[in-house]
Design goal:
Length: about 425
């Protein structure tokens, strides 16, 4: 006979219901526990503060089922036993949700501004403007020669600074090819309070002393785009460059202590672990910080689920993890939602000040997974990647996900 008492999820554990199944998010230990329909039903009733006997009655559970469920939940350190009805506050981070959006509370909106400062490149990548998953972290060449930016850059940086923007990403082909313009922009950036200045590059100019001196002087953080397979470089440069030249430049950065990240553009499906092991060997390092960017027919898979932290979980319930806090200013001074989604133009500096588009930006920022089909039916919606640009460029929309291997309506992985 099962004794009657109350059960509560531990304060760091959240239950997320899908249309068929459910999942438990352990925001401290970083666990994501999938639940079948029976376990999900038990957790739902438990969360409503029913006693164990009431849960058994309402869920029509057999005693043997409950014994097995309790054994699982206690063994996994998921629940707390209580003698009476108890309310346990969930662990939270930052402001309570009900305060967000209130007029008296100024929550910083702009975290990162992408500024297209250059339209020249020493490579001719056939996939340059093709759909890429997380392609905003890779170099991308501009489609226009209309350089309106140079006459408006100070005004733009002033607006961004006033809006408390923290990070500036300089991109567009290879910004180091126009070193004089980059110097002028860096000089202006130092007049403001930005925390990090990032430059996206393909790495071929990093053997230039003038470039290295510029990186050091302004403490620039470099994102180097590497393309896989590595023998593709000859094709992209018409025989002019090879991967070993980029590798040599990166090894020199290691010697000088310059900060950098690697954006690894994969042009075909591969085992990412094997590639990272190869890069560790090439770079003579025990660890390598490489961000995979998928440039082929890519779909989200089970191994890419990423259990969130407390802060990430709360953020994803209010904002889109891909779009939130970002804006792009193009070479011809258009305001874009994302550097890859060129059709979503929010305005331009000729007819709108930056502050005038914040309301539109906020609307896009709030396209959470709860508003996206079929993600809103999925129990993993707060633990997976998201790239709205990839979906849009592959013919989907901001409000739909087609490229995922999980079907929440069936509760099955393909």
């Amino acid at each position: 006979m099962i004794n009657n008492y109350y059960l509560k999820l531990k304060p760091e554990i959240h239950y997320v219901k899908g249309i068929r199944k459910g999942a438990l998010y352990d925001l401290i230990k970083g666990r994501l526990i999938s639940l079948d329909e029976k376990k999900g039903k038990f957790i739902e009733l438990l969360e409503k503060n029913y006693s164990l006997s009431k849960i058994i009655e309402m869920g029509n559970f057999a005693e043997s089922e409950v014994v097995n469920l309790l054994d699982f939940l206690f063994r996994e350190d998921i629940i707390i036993k209580c003698d009476s009805k108890t309310y346990i506050d969930k662990y939270t981070y930052g402001f309570p949700k009900f305060l967000l959006g209130q007029p008296l509370l100024k929550v910083p909106t702009l975290a990162t501004a992408y500024i297209e400062v250059c339209n020249i490149c020493n490579l001719e990548c056939y996939f340059c403007n093709a759909p890429k998953y997380y392609g905003c972290l890779a170099c991308t060449k501009s489609n226009t020669d209309d350089n309106v930016l140079k006459d408006n850059i100070f005004e733009i940086l002033s607006y961004l600074n006033d809006l408390n923007c923290k990070n500036i990403v300089l991109f567009g082909g290879n910004p180091f090819l126009d070193i004089e313009s980059l110097k002028n922009i860096c000089l202006l950036l130092m007049k403001f309070n930005f925390q990090k200045i990032i430059v996206l590059t393909n790495g071929f100019e990093l053997n230039n002393k003038e470039v290295i001196d510029l990186i050091r002087y302004y403490n620039l953080h470099i994102f180097i785009t590497i393309f896989y397979p590595f023998n593709i470089y000859e094709r992209l440069s018409k025989g002019k460059y090879r991967f070993r030249e980029v590798l040599k430049n990166i090894l020199k950065l290691d010697e000088t202590g310059i900060n950098y990240n690697i954006s690894l553009v994969l042009t075909k499906s591969v085992n990412i672990s094997d590639i990272l092991e190869q890069l560790k060997e090439d770079f003579e390092r025990k660890d390598i910080n490489a961000i995979p960017i998928y440039c082929y027919d890519f779909s989200l898979s089970k191994d890419l689920l990423n259990p969130p932290s407390i802060a990430e979980y709360e953020l994803m319930k209010i904002y889109n993890p891909c779009l939130y806090g970002k804006i792009t200013i193009t070479y011809d001074c258009k305001y874009l939602l994302c550097p890859l989604i060129k059709d979503y133009v929010l305005g331009n500096i000729k007819n709108k000040e930056l502050i005038d588009i914040l309301e539109d930006l906020e609307k896009y920022y709030k396209i959470t997974k709860d508003k996206i089909e079929p993600c809103k039916y999925c129990e993993f919606r707060y633990a997976c990647l998201d790239c709205r640009a990839y979906e849009v460029l592959r013919g989907s929309s901001l409000y739909k996900t087609n490229y995922c291997n999980y079907n929440p309506l069936l509760g099955e992985w393909r």
